[in-house]
Amino acid sequence: MNKSVGTLVERLVEVVGTDLEDLCEAANQAILDGNGFGWLSTPPRQVMENYWRGVLMVPERELFVARLDGQIVGSAQLFKPPPNNEAGAHIMTLTTFFIAPWARGLGLARGLLATTEQAARAAGFLQLDLDVRETQAAAIKLYEESGFTRWAVRQNYARIDGQFVTGYFYTKDLARSPKVQQNRRKKQQKTAAKSESMA
Ligand SMILES: CC(C)(COP(=O)(O)OP(=O)(O)OC[C@H]1O[C@@H](n2cnc3c(N)ncnc32)[C@H](O)[C@@H]1OP(=O)(O)O)[C@@H](O)C(=O)NCCC(=O)NCCS
């Protein structure tokens, strides 16, 4: 694996070199840009470092990162249900999905989403869930293009500067083969294009 050039998406099981510093910096930039997976302002560096170290220690979490020229520029986490949740043992949740502003538009998020989805599927999970603020247009477009279905809307999902923001809940059926999903999406796009041309 050549980490010196180009883009790369991989699971991170331990931090080496500048990984932790890069991860904290990328997350800080995402927070300053307006979406830092819950954080509204950048926390002290030690808090941020402890957060990522904690993520790597929790068995129910898997951390994936996107790299640009070797540097970590984004993340995604898969949450497995806790051992007591046997009834929900088929559902994996995706969270902390972001790419630092300076590394956007290079296909890293698409790669990260595909990799996490594949990991969830390979681990035998049947469903991948996530939620997002309605204001995150780029993420919503990516999720919908990737076959996620919106199944719920929650008012007062987030509170930012005293204002409530609505949130969307999405799910993807991992049991369907990617081919079937691709065909279904093509069909939906064709139908949408047809009704637009008739309007
Ligand atoms: C959403 C986000 C992860 C996309 O990262 P990215 O690396 O720029 O995305 P990619 O380059 O892989 O682009 C993938 C797709 O995302 C969508 N997208 C990316 N940037 C977009 C933009 N500015 N406007 C609309 N759609 C956009 C497009 O569908 C794009 O596919 P296309 O290039 O074929 O049109 C990034 O904008 C981000 O970190 N946003 C803030 C955090 C966030 O909203 N996270 C989701 C919370 S659950």
Number of helices: 5
Largest sheet: 7 strands, mixed
The CATH topology corresponds to Aminopeptidase
Helix content: 25-40%
* CATH homologous superfamily classification: Gcn5-related N-acetyltransferase (GNAT)
Report how far apart the termini are: 51 Å
Query: Strands of the largest sheet, in order across it?
Result: 1-2-3-4-5-7-6
Number of strands: 7
Q: Give the overall shape.
A: globular
Q: Quick gist of this model?
A:
The chain is built from five helices and seven strands. By secondary structure, the chain is α+β, with helices and mostly antiparallel strands. A hairpin with a 2-residue loop joins strand 2 (61-68) and strand 3.
Describe this structure as you would to a colleague.
By secondary structure, the chain is an alpha+beta fold. It has one domain (7-198): 3-Layer(aba) Sandwich (Aminopeptidase), CATH 3.40.630. The chain has five helices and seven strands, in the order E-H-H-E-E-E-H-E-H-E-E-H. It has a seven-stranded mixed sheet, with helices on both faces. A hairpin with a 2-residue loop joins strand 2 (61-68) and strand 3 (71-79). Helix 1 crosses helix 2. The N and C termini lie far apart (51 Å). Bound molecules: coenzyme A.
Features:
7-stranded mixed sheet; alpha+beta
Topology:
Layout: E1 7-12, H1 19-33, H2 45-57, E2 61-68, E3 71-79, E4 91-99, H3 108-122, E5 127-133, H4 137-145, E6 149-160, E7 163-173, H5 178-198
The structure holds coenzyme A (COA).
